[in-house]
Design a protein that fits this description.
The protein has two domains: 312 residues, 3-Layer(aba) Sandwich (Alkaline Phosphatase, subunit A), CATH 3.40.720.10; 79 residues, Arylsulfatase, C-terminal domain, CATH 3.30.1120. The strands form three sheets. Strands 1, 2, 3, 4, 5, 7, 9, 10 and 11 form a nine-stranded mixed β-sheet that branches. Strands 12-13-14-15 form a four-stranded antiparallel β-sheet. It has twelve helices and 15 strands. Helices cover 30% and strands 18% of the residues. The chain has 405 residues and is of the alpha/beta class.
């Protein structure tokens, strides 16, 4: 058995059909979702890429205390012991040289372009070149294998041909921008809507380009010998703010949903879980645990607060945890439960979930008991991780779990 894990950085969950997109044409992604199992509530532990990959490959949560030398075995090391060769293909140096990448049989770096310029043809784009390298590798892959592809994706150059942008412009709209530079800014309180409109059109064009690339990869997998024994995983490392809280791009990595909620789809070769989905709270370390389970290796990493997603796919359980805790920088913290999302700061922000999807209505002033309860739950989780006694974390009460008291 084999697995292909495609991590497309900076893919906004709201711009994927399975997560609510209705205005971008994405037939390949829609097909992947129809053939796969979707996780509605996958949140990253941290927008820090290095820390995020310690979670993917070693199970470390940013709040956890690491042992001397960070000697927990990595995912590729565990697979190597079982005879599964793993390859890392990436255009992101921070991933290629991450300490948790040890154990990969090979690392294939892809040079990002020096100058960001819009392409005239699809195959001239950086993203298409990355997917072409992926297919080239798969053509001669020795089985069993794990191919982990981390692509800068929507965080890389926005170089899709202009026609990909103009298809999302109405006749009365200003012309879409000509730049391939990835925007990064804080919008003014009274910003010009046309300024954001052009950014949205350019981003939509890049999503359409991604869809074409994903479609070509799926066709290759399904048309050849990989069709019957290869798991395909599509996810994103981080989302991309597009003005929801006046932020565009990675301006300050504030822990809002447009950044921390990411797509996650598992497509199994035997049709397992096709067109099904789960609202369970999922974190990055679960992906590594699931891959170990895919090869029947159980959980040799002994990961704290990480577990295979296969019981959810098989509908054996409805959830695997009652909370997710997030970290940004030295002091940024957030906690998500099935009913609430709290950004814990000097002025905390509380949002009802899952209804307030993109955190529009801050209800912290009206729910002080919930704020204090979540702060306590976050502190208990952090202390339990540091002490290695996660099984002793007190369960959440009803109001923190369901919003009902």
């Amino acid at each position: 058995m084999n697995a292909i894990c495609i991590v497309v950085d900076r893919l906004h969950a709201g711009y994927v059909g399975a997560y609510g997109n209705t205005w971008i044409d994405t037939p390949a992604l829609d097909r992947l979702v129809a053939e796969g199992f979707v996780f509605d509530q996958c949140l990253i532990d941290s927008p820090d890429l290095e820390g995020l990959y310690r979670s993917y490959w070693q199970g470390w949560h940013p709040l956890a205390a690491e042992p001397p030398g960070n000697d927990r075995p990595s995912l590729p090391e565990q697979l190597a012991e079982a005879g599964v060769e793993s390859t890392l293909l990436t255009d992101e140096p921070l991933v290629a040289w991450n300490g948790s990448a040890r154990g990969f049989h090979s690392v294939i770096p892809i040079e990002p372009p020096n100058d960001a310029m819009m392409a005239e043809e699809i195959d001239e784009t950086h993203l298409a070149g990355c997917f072409a390298r992926t297919v080239d590798w798969l053509e001669s892959a020795q089985r069993p294998f794990l191919l982990w592809c981390h692509l800068r994706g929507l965080g890389g150059p926005w170089d899709a041909p202009m026609e990909f942008r103009t298809r999302y412009a109405e006749p009365e709209d200003p012309d879409p921008p000509l730049s391939a530079e990835v925007p990064c800014r804080m919008l003014e309180e009274n910003y010009d809507p046309d300024q954001l409109l052009g950014i949205l059109q350019a981003y939509a064009g890049q999503v359409s380009l991604l869809d074409v690339c994903v479609g070509a990869l799926l066709e290759f997998v399904q048309a050849g010998p990989l069709a019957d024994d290869t798991l395909v995983v599509l996810l994103s490392a981080r989302g991309f703010p597009l003005g929801e809280h006046r932020r565009v791009g990675d301006y300050d990595e504030a822990l809002y949903g447009e950044l921390v909620q990411v797509p996650l789809v598992l497509r199994f070769p035997n049709g397992l879980g096709a067109s099904a989905r789960s609202p369970a709270l999922v974190r990055p370390a679960d992906v590594g645990a699931t891959l170990l389970d895919w090869w029947g290796l159980g959980d040799p990493l002994d990961l704290p607060d990480a577990g295979s997603l296969m019981p959810l796919v098989h509908e054996q359980v409805e959830s695997i945890r009652d909370r997710l805790c997030l970290v940004e920088g030295a002091s940024g913290r957030a906690i998500r439960t099935p009913a609430w999302y709290l950004r814990d700061a000097d002025r905390p922000e509380l949002f009802a979930k899952p209804d307030d999807r993109w955190e529009v209505n801050n209800v912290s002033d009206r729910c002080q008991d919930v704020v204090e309860g979540l702060r306590k739950a976050l502190a208990e989780y952090a202390e339990s991780l540091r002490s290695g006694r996660l099984d002793e974390v007190p369960p959440l009460n009803e109001i923190l779990m369901t919003g009902l008291g």
